[in-house]
Amino acid sequence: MKKIIALIIVALLVVGGVRLLKKRREALSKARPPRALAVRVDSMKAELKEVTVTLPVLAEVRSRQNATVSTKISGTITLVNVKEGTKVEAGTLLAKIDDRDLRAKKVSLELSLSNLDYEIASKKSQLASLKIKLSNALDTHRRTKELYKVKGASIEQLQNEASAIASLRAELDAVTNGLKSLENQKNVIRQKIKELDATLSYTTIKSPISGTVSRSFVSQGELATPGRPLFSISSDEGYYLVLHLPSDISPKGLLLDGHELQLTPLALADNNGLRQYAADIPQGLNLVAGEIVDGDLVLFSGNAVLLPPDAILIREGKKLVFTFENGRAKPLKVKVLASGKEGVIVEGALNGKTIIVAKPDILLRLLTGVPVILDNLVQNRSQLQRRGTGCSRSGVFWTRSQDGEGAKTRSERSHDGVVSVAP
Length: 423
Description:
By secondary structure, the chain is of the alpha+beta class.
């Protein structure tokens, strides 16, 4: 009996629960859904105007006329005439190398040259004497031939004179050849003296350009060797800037201390694989070679709509801008042309439209179609820039980094400077 009563009670409880559940479902189905809460956002009026978009950049000052001075000979440094920071002109004496051995060799060669001059003079006198003897012998031999025709001279006399003439000619040839040999020896010694003079010129180290001694690598008493740098001279003229940029950056110019400089691409990447650009430095800037200066890299200049980075959302590879229409946010696909510290330039028909400016998590909510209430109107460039956070340095190139964190979302900045959101 107790079991039957227990089963009846359980059955009644189940039936009651089912009826209660049905009533709750009917009540929920008849109730109105909760009204979506409106999102309060900032906004801006898109305006087509002349804008310039830049990125902070570091540039290295170089000189086209820098010179590293070395020597072609080995020797002991006997004099250092300048120190670092000394202003020098082209031809200024920088240092001297011990040249005593070279000068001793030159004196020896000059003595040999002097002795050769005496020998050459003696040979020339001997040659002149032989020429006179040969001339007299030839005259005598002609007369002997005439006498021989009239039986006034013997055949033996005629033959003896011919032999004497042949001997004189042989002796004359030998002296002539000896004289040529001495002249050749003299020319060789002269050439050696010229080579010694050239070598001696390397013992006097002079500045090849006008400028400032930026580095001195030697001191008196040290041994100088061929190829070893002795001094580094920085020219006071011909300075230019070099920028190192990644390949996805297409610069339009460089702003430096109020000057707009034209950039020329160099057909050579640096050791890190970055492209290099050069710009001439205008007069009046007090810069020195090796200095690193701050400038602004121009990425875009012209008529365009400038947006803050927080006005753009990247979703599934698409860049979206939200316009305000009839109390709702309407997503519009755009193409980013340039992004810098002033903001983002996009391609699209935005002129005159009201653009929503908000953090990534808010922009993501707008995709669901929630109502929108406009709060503040971003009106000027300084307000646009305050939508970001700042810059971080990467090598010699500065890139914008404006990371934000939304509730239950993860947001990242792309290299375009806009926001990418992943759920």
